Amino acid sequence: MTDKPEVMSGESLDIAALRRDELKQLFPSVFTETKDVDGNVVSSIDFERLKAELGTFSDIYEGRRERYGMEWPGKRDCMKVIQEPSRATLKPCPDESVDWDTTKNLFIEGDNLEVLKLLQKSYYGKVKMIYIDPPYNTGNEFIYPDNYQETLDTYLTYAGLLDDEGKKFTTNTASEGRYHTKWLNMMYPRLFLAKNLLREDGVVFVSIDYRESSNLRNLLNEIFGEENLIFDVSVVNNLKGRNDREGIATCHENLLIYCKHEYNPVGLPLSDDKKSEYNQIDENTGAPFQWRDLRKRGGADTRKERPKMYYPLYVNSMSGEVSMDCTDEFDVAVYPVKSDGTDGRWRWGKEKTAENISKLLGKKVSNRDKWNISYKVFMSEEGTERRVTPKSIWLDPKYSTDSATKALASLFPKLDAKKFTPKPIGFLSDIIEQSTEQGDIVLDFFCGTGSTGIALMENNIQNGIDRQFILVQLPEPISESLPDEYKSILTIADLAKERLRRFAKEKNSSGLTERDLGFKVFRLDKSNFKEWEGKREFSVDTLQQQLTLNVESTQTGASHEGILYEILLKAGFEPTESVESINLNGKIVFSVAHDALLICLEDQLTEELIDDVIALEPMQFICLDQGFQGNDQLKANTAQAFKARSRDSEAEMVFKVV
């Protein structure tokens, strides 16, 4: 039994290792153990055995030299970017936040590629809906770097957190040979990582214009699978049209919708016009309803297509009541005959019709020897109001760009809102409404001025529920000269944060809501811990040696709060989890998620403290290696004590140092 603790990784989730583990679960027999040049035992994949496991499919795939797929220069480098873990961190900014101690919402300022990597451990498979409005590749300044080696440093330079070493963001004009490939290289890794965060029933909505619509669809087909395309919706957002194309006034943009595996939309609430159609009142329950034709109309509406749904119903000519059986009282036979005299079909089969026979009514067509059968559709079923399915074209004044700029201007009256191209709140609210429910998480990693956060909070207020948002925005400088009133707003991220703060203040001052209108602000930055020297890949023993050499593992000036949240994040806990400071034997220990994770940042650990920690039976206990002050015996005893307690309690308890 080893007497060494597990060394906590200072990196984000290793995507390549995760994929290998998934493959090993499916095909354990294809993994073999070999020795590398240094004599270390390593695991490798026997690809010949894997092809044998896959059978004829692998033969077909290997023999086909020309394959259907999407290729572009730099695609292989995209995968390298995806597989390269991040050593960055998210530094807490309580002073910029609202309701820091209680809110479940997140606003993260930073490059979304690094941020998505850092969110992998905490939010893997937890996000219900993603909405993004990525750069439309208009040929203007290309904010996101075409850089495969130093993404974090490039970002830090851009954000003014590092000295300028010549790194800069380039333009992406149509005259360049890599006009489309730069955009694809930017989008591919971000969408790939975003998919990992989605739940199995999760869904992604992406707004895009004509320039990259086809490329984006091909990209999403590759990442999500063409079979998971829900629809390519046309959203009319400017009825007047924009004269940005010769001979065409553009009045819409596309909304691509893809699910991860299974998507069960909840639909949209009834509009006032739709509610007015339920203009009948049930005499027994007093519930509003409307009559609808029982004969199927539209696709697959013939007897030939659904022969079992062609059968007679019998009507009482005096009362209009309907029966399945022909009697003296029910003597008028009615068949689902189409208007052209051909045989149609009912909407329901015999069994469902028999169960709902009391909801049917026969009506004679005026001046014709013909009867129709109608059925009751109630506005509410079992206490839940009926909802409607969105159509393939979205057309509503609340989807307009004018409504978007008015919403932004309402909180910033002296701002020229049009220059910031915000998204319409009504449009985003409908996306949130149809795809999420109580407790769901919504992610927008191109959040711009924060419209998604505003829409989510507004929708939560209207529906009396709580969903959570994660917003990510690059601190893109605002080039326009703003009025003195807004002089503290230097970047788009600043504008989004201030917009969220003003919205929360406005709603809270009304006293009409108890919803979560707060948000925690974090900023992407370098790790609070020292970089390891040499190669990134180490054995546990080698890594332990590195830790020993760096007695002080933390960076000079690193705050306890920053260290705490970096450990919390890289241990796989959400940054919004509850954190409580507790005193154990005179030492401060941070309890995360009600003792699920205990973190101690003290510089001198004691045996008594360790005993108190173990008694709380946390899932994980993480401390600074320097806290043992070179006392290897105490460290070894701690590791053994955690293993022994795990066996006794039949629940794994992990002890890590960092």
Explain what this protein looks like in three dimensions:
It is a single chain. The chain is of the alpha/beta class. It has 4 domains: 11-82, no CATH class; 83-267 and 389-525, Vaccinia Virus protein VP39 (Rossmann fold, 3-Layer(aba) Sandwich), CATH 3.40.50.150; 273-387, no CATH class; 540-657, no CATH class. 31% of the residues lie in helices and 21% in strands. It is built from 18 helices and 31 strands. A 10-stranded mixed beta sheet has the order 4-26-5-25-24-6-7-11-8-23, with helices on both faces. It has a 6-stranded mixed beta sheet with strand order 1-31-30-29-28-27, sandwiched between helices. The protein has a 4-stranded antiparallel beta sheet with strand order 13-14-19-18, with no helix packed on it. Helix 4 runs parallel beside helix 7, helix 7 (179-197) runs parallel beside helix 8 and helix 12 (425-435) crosses helix 13. The longest helix has 19 residues, at 179-197. It starts with 5 loop residues before the first strand and ends with a strand. Residues 165-169 have low confidence and may be disordered. Belongs to the N(4)/N(6)-methyltransferase family. It comes from Paraglaciecola chathamensis.
